[in-house]
Write a structure and sequence with these properties.
globular, 254 residues, 9 helices, 41% helix, 7-stranded parallel sheet, alpha/beta
């Protein structure tokens, strides 16, 4: 008899690692990342590590993703009921120096690989109608502007657009939502958090202060549960108030 799994991309670190540890208490997981040793480390921190599956895959290389996933599921007699696309690449490039190979790599990881994974998950001959929810990790960069983030923001905006259309296309069997995290300290932005001026600016623009990867993992856990049975097509902001923050204006005396 086939077992059902939650598939998490980007499980090696950051949000994905936190999600894996959170969800492992109640689910079997397929953990996706580029390095086997890193995935093994994450799996060892999960509850009942032996029940979780590792899929070593570089999502910046699109060729063969759909076929490999279908083969994996068949070989493990596994079905996927929840898919979380947490894999993400952040490349900061200013308009005057945009390099298209880097932009394409960014879109491959953040956007196109998700479509390659979803394809077999919605094919009945592969996943037997088991899929119940898809959750994309987007970003508040789709709501607020920042210098050098144009390509990254565009990729995450594409994720939001995909989420909206799939929410309609796959209903009522599958719910599809995006989570828009604010700035959280993860491996992706360690360099930024080493700069005092950056830390100061984050604290000044986030009314609730710093968030944790666990705050996002809790939201993923909710969206993949029956408690979210009537929620689809939503962009759920988890940002400590960043997108509602408005700096006070200084009045000029005349």
């Amino acid at each position: 008899m086939a077992e059902t799994y939650t598939l998490i991309t980007g499980a090696s670190s950051g949000f994905g690692s936190s999600m894996a540890q959170k969800l492992s208490a109640t689910r079997r997981l397929i953990l996706v990342g580029r390095k086997a040793e890193t995935l093994e480390s994450v799996r060892s921190k999960c509850e009942l590590p032996e029940k979780h599956v590792i899929w070593v895959r570089d999502l910046s290389q699109l060729g063969g993703i759909s076929g490999e996933l279908a083969t994996l599921l068949t070989g493990k007699s596994a079905l996927v009921d929840h898919f979380v696309h947490s894999a993400g690449l952040l490349i900061i490039q200013y308009a005057r120096a945009i390099e298209m190979p880097s932009v394409m790599q960014l879109f491959n990881v953040n956007v196109f690989s998700a479509l390659e994974i979803i394809k077999p998950l919605v094919q009945k001959r592969v996943n037997q109608g088991a899929l119940r929810s898809i959750t994309f990790l987007s970003s508040v960069a789709t709501r607020v502007g920042a210098s050098g983030y144009s390509a990254y923001s565009a990729s995450k905006g594409a994720v939001n657009g995909i989420s909206l259309s799939l929410a309609v296309e796959l209903a009522p069997a599958v719910r599809v939502n995006s989570i828009l995290p604010g700035i959280v300290g993860t491996e992706m932005n360690t360099e930024h958090f080493s700069k005092p001026e950056f830390v100061e600016s984050v604290l000044a623009t986030h009314p609730l202060g710093f968030g944790k990867a666990e705050d996002v993992a809790d939201t993923v856990d909710f969206l993949a549960s029956d408690r979210a049975r009537w929620i689809t097509g939503q962009e759920i902001v988890v940002d400590g108030g960043r997108t509602v923050f408005s700096p006070p204006r200084t009045s000029k005396q005349t």
